[in-house]
Amino acid sequence: MKSNLKWLTTSLLLIAVSCTPSGKRLSTKYPIITKIKQDKSSPFYVDFQHYPTNRKALPVGVFDSGTGGLTVLEAILNYDQHNNVTHKPGADGIPDFKSEYFEYLADDANMPYGRYDAEGKADFLRELVIKDVRFILGNTYFLSPRDTIPQTDKKPVKAIVIACNTATAFGLETVRKATREWGLNMNILGIIEAGVKETLRQMKGKKGVIGILATEGTCASNGYPRTIKKLLPQFPEAGKVFVIQQPGIGLAGAIDGDQNYIDPQAKSLRSSANYKGPSVGNPKYPIDLASIRQYNFDTTGNQLLVKKDKNGKWIQIQLNSVSNYIKYMATNMTIKMTKNYPGETLNEVILGCTHYPYYTKQIRAQFLYLKTLNKKYDKVIPEDISFIDPAKSLAGELYNYLYKNKLWASSNNRNSRFFISVPNPDLKQNKIDKQGRFLYSYKYGRKMNQSLQYVKIVPFSTKCIKESVRERIEEDVPSAWQLIQWQ
Asked: Which residues pair with 261 in a beta bridge?
């Protein structure tokens, strides 16, 4: 087992998730925690003194930085590993959570979460996660962005699932401590530990590399490598393992239509103020012109924005499709893999962002394309390369929690509800573009501890979610789609 841990001992950069001085309460660093509990005049206030103690009939709360977390909810809705009457192991053809209902939050206005750490805003991100949990626990929301008086009929919850990998990596321990300061006994489940457990089970009798495809922030947090190190001793049958991470620069944003990463109307290169994705010469996210064949970018339409010199040679490139962001990510991981771990096999790849399972087929296709290019890639990429969706394992952990704590609902006679955050049009400080989104510089330039209601949270509606995103939801997460009541 010492050999299993050697690579982590020498390479892992440990990060303190909640850096408060010893002996001080978390609310000293994050005053919003105190406002949520004590300030009745604050829009963030929650009356924890009267929070329900009998919680069987309450919904389960799920939140993510966007609609990508619906893949996690889909896994929960389709989970069938037990008999629904006896709760004994063994599928019975009836979804295990059939009697439950849910409240889902997509913090779309503030996404992508993966950029905050890179912009020096890790603590602001943790404050956002605290506010996400506050919403899930509270009873208020708005019917529309322009409403000034909140509705108060939202249900509290009996458990919380953080679907977002970045929010889990940076905020899980923070919000667990916050709920203790609120005097609330509330279980909060994060997706990273669930994904790691499933991956290590799959590594039984194998040796090789575990790949992590995740957001920039999740990779920077070292949440997955740190958790692998922690849990590896519990899986003695796993062979010697190594870990490699590849941030999906801009991929989550592109999937959700963030124009900082993708613009369907663009016909030529965009300015650096408007485009934040990879490009030739980008010091953080470079596109290597020598690797064009490996990338295999799709050049049809405007999916790839290219500038050529007078001889027709490419000198600049910008990505402008989800497909090309996927090709960039998978190719960079493969190049890094062959350089860092020659002779090893990329056995398991964790899809460490809730948006990525939507595109498992495309991710697999790029890896298998690379496998055909040369002997070096052929050796490291197996034909049956395995992709781990942590959501399925997380569903199992939620099941076990409800069962052990006798929190199963007797019947489902209530509707699940779906909410999304939008920039608050009534806050004068907010800087919002023509598409109704925060300007990039403003979004990542905001300061914490401002007690400002930057966003309003409203029900899912056709006005707040693009048609292309709705079509993806209907096609890829049909069980969740059936529960959504569009406004």
From this structure: none
Neighbouring residues of 474: CB distance < 8 A, sequence distance ≥ 6: 481
Q: Which domains does the chain have, with CATH numbers?
A: 24-191+392-483 (3.40.50.1860), 263-319 (no CATH)
Q: Which residues are CB-contacts of 198 (< 8 A; sequence separation ≥ 6)?
A: 388, 390, 392, 393
Mean pLDDT of 149-169: 96
404-441 burial: b if 16+ Cβ within 10 Å, else e: eeebbbeeeeeebbbbbbbbbeeeeebebeeeebbebe
- Pairwise CA distance, residues 379 & 381, whole Å: 6
At 41, list the tokens.
């005049």
Q: Report the b/e string of 359-374 with b at 16+ CB within 10 A.
A: beeebebbbebbbeee
State whether residue 319 is helix, strand or coil: strand
Contact 354, 251 (CB under 8 A): no
Helices (H), 341-389: 360-371, 375-380
The pairing of strands 188-190 and 102-106 is unpaired
Q: What is the pLDDT of residue 12?
A: 39
pLDDT score at 18: 37
CA distance to 2, 138, 203, 228, 243, per residue, from 9 (Å): 10, 42, 20, 12, 12
Render pLDDT for 8-54 as a digit per residue (tens, 0 to 9): 433 333 333 334 444 468 888 999 999 999 999 999 999 999 999 99
- pLDDT band at 355; cut points 50, 70, 90: confident
3-state secondary structure of 134: helix
Region of 257 please: left (phi>0), alpha (psi -120 to 50) or beta. left
* SS3 label, residue 166: helix
Cβ proximity of 384 and 202 under 8 Å: no
Band the pLDDT of 247: cuts 50, 70, 90: very high
State the Cα–Cα distance between residues 278 and 249, nearest whole angstrom.
7
* pLDDT tops 70 at residue 325: yes
Q: Output the pTM of the full model.
A: 0.83
Q: Which residue has the tokens 């490139």?
A: 317
The first and second tokens of residue 160, run together, are 């919380």
Whether 3 has a pLDDT exceeding 50, the answer reads no
Radius of gyration of the chain, Cα coordinates, nearest whole angstrom: 22
**CA–CA gap between residue 230 and residue 17 (Å, rounded):** 15
Assess whether pLDDT exceeds 60 at residue 445.
yes
Residue range 331-344: mean pLDDT, rounded? 93
